[in-house]
Structure formats: structure tokens, C-alpha cells
Design goal:
The chain has 393 residues and is mostly helical. Helices cover 78% and strands 0% of the residues. Helix 1 crosses helix 6, helix 10 runs antiparallel to helix 11 and helix 12 crosses helix 14.
């Protein structure tokens, strides 16, 4: 077993708690948003603000962790998640759409800080096992597939006359558990070591491998979140019940994270780039299933493919990214990666509600095809030069 096993496991459990919070918000955000919003086209705005919060937090999170260490940054992120959960509960009590949106912005900031868990796991192990460490942390989301949607459903009637307030209070309890768990992680010194010489960012960004990793991860995440955000609305619009939404989201999240138990081994055997391309093909497979119909099984199987495709592309992209920077450059490159990914994800989420309301479910899915085609083409062209690159020392 690779070194740093304890830290990697604790980070995986921390990831599971964070993603349970996020999955609960995604499960309820659009549906409750449609009830609270003054205009139904704004129904997905809470989810969009969750993603915007993730993008906004990515740069200050890197700055804080560079100067004050991983633990301080992660604790601040969890505190933001706790605040966001309580604000959402208050918003539902007061039926305030503005407070509900603001709460999701804070929840997104929690994710923005927590997205560095996978990089912290890499720092806890040796380079040979980086892909496996990332996979273990990402695999923590398997727990979220069941905890998030179930808490959303169970908490609906916990408080009389205030539907789903209990769900967000349960979400706050998950954040408290995350604070206790993060206190057990053994990080290094208070600041992250910046050993060796750092190259200018412009020079780092010239690497084909770096551009491939950022582009592939960004496209996979943007496509996945756009479709997932609109799925509850599409299912209700097709005449399916709210009870049908929960299993579809659950199995989608299982598809996102369960493959992580073996994605690292597949990357080690076949390489990061071929695994990214496999992910893009599976994401296109979701579009094909969508075109076949809009029954429950179409949503279930399509969202499962969407999850697995995201996993292959995102884990592979992150693994490739870790091979492109020196120790002194890690936070700078990671911050750029997170900002680009979640900037594109924010744009795709903001457009999801509008696309669905204006053009419908089929058109929304067809809209992602050019992005996936671009990612496949770009990774194929730039990937020819990757074998000429060596990892910086």
C-alpha cells in the first residue's frame, strides 16, 4: 500500500461528506428554486450560484493554503458550507429566493476549497501512485450518492409547516462532522513547501499536456453539470414523479464515483489520455440514449453513462495535470486549473435552465455535442506531443 494511506482515507471520507452536501443541494436546488423563484426560468439559479461559488473560491483557497497551510484552508471551506446550509434552511422558512441563492453560493465556496482534497492526497503519496490516490479521494463520492438524496427526502417533513428545512439542517450536521474529521488529518508544516525554482505561468501553460488536462476536465465537468442540473426539471416535465428523481440522481452519482475504485489502475495501464477520450465517448453515449426516449429507464441509463464518462475524463485529467508542474508551481497551476474548470462549469449551469425552458430537453443535450467533439479533437491533436514531454524535476 502506498505511503500516506491514513491521510488519503481521511481525505476520502471528507470528500464523501462534502459531496453529500453538494448532492443534496443539487437534488433539491432546482425543484425548490422553481417554487421560490419569481420566474420559472430562474429555477436553476441556485445550482448555478453553487457552481459560481466554487469558481470564485478556487483562487483565494489556493492563496490561503499557500500561506497558512492545507488545514486552515479546508477548515475555512467547511465553515462556509455550514453557513450556507443554515442560510438555506432560513431561506426556506422565510420563503426567500434571494437567501436561498446566497446559501448555495456559500455551499459552492465549500466545494471550491474542498476540490483541493485530491491534490492534498497526491502530496501524501509518491508520484507512482498519484492516480490511485486521486481515485480514492474521488471515490468518496459513492457515499454521497446515497446520503445526499436520502437526506433530501427524509428531511422533507422533519419540521411541520416548513418543507425541506430539515434537509438543510441535516446538511449542516454533515458539515460539523466534516470539521471534526478534518481535525484528524496530519498535514505537514503550516505552509506548503515551495521547493525549487518556479517557471513563469506563461511558460507552464505552453505545455500540451497541461492544456489537454485543463480542457478535458473542464469540458467533462461542464457537460455533466449542465445535464444533471436540468434533469429533475426534465423528468417532472415529462410526467414522471418527484419520487423518480431520487434514484436517477443516486445512480448518476454512483456512476460518477464508483469507477474511481479502478480508474487509477486503468490510467496506470492505458494512460491518462486514452482514458480521457473514453470518458468523452461515454458522455456522447448519454446524448444517444437521450435521443431514444424520455421514459424513466432512459433517464436512469443516460445519467449513469454521464457519470461514468465524467469520472474517466476528470480523474484522468487531474492525473495528467499533476505531471506538468514542479513542487514550487503546484498551487499556482492548481488554482488556474480549478478557476478555468469551474468558470466554464458556471457558464454551463447558468445556461441550463434557460436552454431547457426555451428549447427543451433534447436540444439541451444536443448543445453539448460540439463541446465533446472539440475535446476529442483537441486531445487527439495535442496528445501526439505528450510523449515528448517529461515531468519537470
Amino acid at each position: 500500500m502506498f505511503t500516506g494511506r491514513r491521510n488519503v482515507l481521511l481525505l476520502a471520507f471528507s470528500q464523501a461528506l462534502m459531496l453529500s452536501v453538494i448532492v443534496l443541494s443539487v437534488t433539491l436546488g432546482a425543484v425548490l428554486g422553481s417554487m421560490l423563484a419569481p420566474d420559472r426560468s430562474l429555477a436553476t439559479l441556485p445550482i448555478a450560484m453553487l457552481v459560481v461559488g466554487t469558481a470564485i473560491a478556487s483562487l483565494p483557497a489556493a492563496f490561503l493554503m499557500r500561506h497558512h497551510g492545507r488545514r486552515a484552508g479546508f477548515m475555512i471551506g467547511i465553515a462556509l458550507g455550514l453557513s450556507g446550509s443554515l442560510l438555506c434552511a432560513l431561506a426556506l422558512q422565510q420563503r426567500s429566493f434571494g437567501l436561498f441563492v446566497a446559501g448555495h453560493l456559500l455551499l459552492g465556496a465549500y466545494q471550491g476549497f474542498a476540490n483541493y482534497y485530491r491534490f492534498a492526497a497526491v502530496e501524501a503519496t509518491d508520484p507512482e501512485h498519484a492516480g490511485r490516490a486521486i481515485s480514492w479521494v474521488v471515490a468518496g463520492g459513492v457515499v454521497a450518492a446515497f446520503v445526499g438524496p436520502q437526506l433530501a427526502a427524509w428531511g422533507r417533513d422533519w419540521m411541520a409547516g416548513a418543507s425541506f428545512v430539515g434537509s438543510y439542517l441535516a446538511q449542516a450536521a454533515l458539515c460539523v462532522m466534516a470539521l471534526a474529521l478534518m481535525a484528524q488529518v496530519r498535514f505537514g508544516p503550516g505552509t506548503i513547501a515551495q521547493t525549487g525554482a518556479a517557471r513563469p505561468l506563461r511558460q507552464i501553460l505552453r505545455q500540451s499536456a497541461l492544456r489537454v488536462s485543463i480542457l478535458g476536465s473542464a469540458v467533462a465537468y461542464a457537460v455533466m453539470i449542465m445535464v444533471m442540473t436540468a434533469t429533475p426539471l426534465a423528468m417532472l416535465g415529462c410526467g414522471l414523479g418527484s419520487n423518480d428523481v431520487t434514484p436517477v440522481i443516486q445512480w448518476h452519482v454512483v456512476g460518477m464515483f464508483a469507477p474511481s475504485f479502478f480508474t487509477g489502475s486503468l490510467i496506470k495501464r492505458f494512460g491518462a489520455l486514452p482514458m480521457m477520450q473514453t470518458g468523452f465517448v461515454l458522455l456522447l453515449g448519454h446524448v444517444a440514449v437521450t435521443l431514444l426516449g424520455s421514459e424513466f429507464l432512459h433517464f436512469l441509463s443516460g445519467l449513469l453513462l454521464l457519470g461514468v464518462g465524467w469520472n474517466f475524463a476528470f480523474v484522468s485529467g487531474t492525473t495528467l495535470l499533476t505531471q506538468t508542474y514542479r513542487p514550487a508551481e503546484q498551487l499556482k497551476v492548481q488554482a488556474v486549473n480549478e478557476f478555468v474548470i469551474f468558470g466554464l462549469v458556471a457558464l454551463s449551469t447558468l445556461s441550463a435552465g434557460w436552454l431547457y425552458q426555451r428549447f427543451g430537453w433534447i436540444a439541451l443535450n444536443l448543445a453539448v455535442v460540439p463541446l465533446l467533439a472539440l475535446a476529442l479533437l483537441s486531445t487527439s491533436v495535442m496528445g501526439r506531443r505528450i510523449h515528448l514531454l517529461e515531468k519537470p524535476v
